[in-house]
Amino acid sequence: MTMHYRYLIIDDEKLARTGTLAKLSSMEDTITCVGQAADGEEGLRLTEELKPDIVITDMKMPVMDGGQLLSVLARRFPNIQIIVISGYRDFEYSRQAIARMESQSDMENKLQSSEEYRESLQLNHDREQLRNLICGYAKGSLQLSSRKLAFINRSSSNRLILLHSDHPLPEEDINLLLVNQGYDTRALYLSHPHVENLGFLLLFFTAHRISPSTDTACLRVIDNLKTLFLSRNEQVLFGISGEHESLSCLRDTLQESIQALNQKKIRESRDVFTYRPGAAAPSVLLWPRTDELLFRIESGMTEEANDLVTELFDWYGSLPDATLYDIKYSCFQITGQLKLILHRYIRQLQPDTVDSSIQNILDTMFSLKALEGYYRQFFSSVSQSLAPHHIYADSDIIANVATYIDRNYFRSISVEFVASLFHMNRSYLSHIFKQKQGKSFIDYLNLVRVT
């Protein structure tokens, strides 16, 4: 599948704009000019209107110069790739303006050759295609066109190493290390498109290699990376995929790397995990206070629910053999029960969409702290959205108890448990319930269950 990109040229010199068009004319099958602007203000307007994938801009322009434009583009359009072409003598001005940008940008000088210019665009294009295949944004095989990545076309197999850190991963430092260690002709590092503490390291192998096994090759690269992260006092996890022959399987390599990292036990210090087919099913972790958590969320008791989330993750952390996979599965099961509750009040809720969204988020988290932060926010949001429904807020507390039984009869319910939910004494609840309902708590529960 060939990706097609749209670009916008911003330059106050018409001759320069014409020259850029001429340089890129041979790539019109993959890149198309959608507009031209003579100053930064017009360029910003066209960017908003045309939504190009790439902006090619000069620095010294009237009305709004390149420095101002870069700042606005970085803030408002962080996903647009930006290439700066400038013959401006005050080169430090250009460098500082680019350094302030939050999005990735490439800097080119107008005096550089057409071939270098073309190679830069092709390299960015190839890297983006590979990233899209890994993340599942694109499917199919591809043929890379940049000279720098030509070794990938000659490879016969590949493996992916997923990197996870509690800090943003230093892309420039990682790439520099790969070059210095001689890995730049057989490895490629790509940052995650949305999560700054995740990264993809692709290793490529030839059919007639004399080198050690691919397992050994992966571990050697990781050892070099560990030296870098040790110098930064950062702890990084590495998940190694299986070996695949086609680039079209890059999405599979990511899923395998995720599965590898999910096997990490919460209390173990190991930091390298390799995918093995036929991984064990997750262990079932049954937290004794799950039903109470669901009740507090449904009742809109956000503060109480937050306290229970703290207890839940403290409990997970106390389980020496629990893996990230076990905990994610357990949380997913709780979320599944919560969806049933939500469906009573939000009929347009699409469970499959919710499942997919949550799964995509969980696939980027590999620490108990991150999982706790996510679920604390998620459960709080649900609790706050249900609070206006005033569930279990009837002035008659026995009516609230009866409502709870009617909606949760399929759960393991006892007088003691329900009394604790409503902050009542067990004996008092039994007495007042029979007085108002005309039957005992147990008789009422059994009647609901059979009807």
User: What is the number of independent domains?
Assistant: 4
Radius of gyration: 29 Å
The total beta strand count reads 10
Would you tell me the overall average pLDDT? 87
Q: What is the annotated CATH architecture of the largest domain?
A: 2-Layer Sandwich
Could you characterize the architecture of this molecule?
There is one protein chain. By secondary structure, the chain is of the alpha/beta class. It folds into four domains: 5-112, Response regulator (Rossmann fold), CATH 3.40.50; 140-274, Alpha-Beta Plaits; 290-389; 397-450, Arc Repressor Mutant, subunit A (Orthogonal Bundle), CATH 1.10.10. It contains 18 helices and ten strands. The strands form two sheets. Strands 2-1-3-4-5 form a five-stranded parallel sheet, sandwiched between helices. The longest helix has 22 residues, at 114-135.
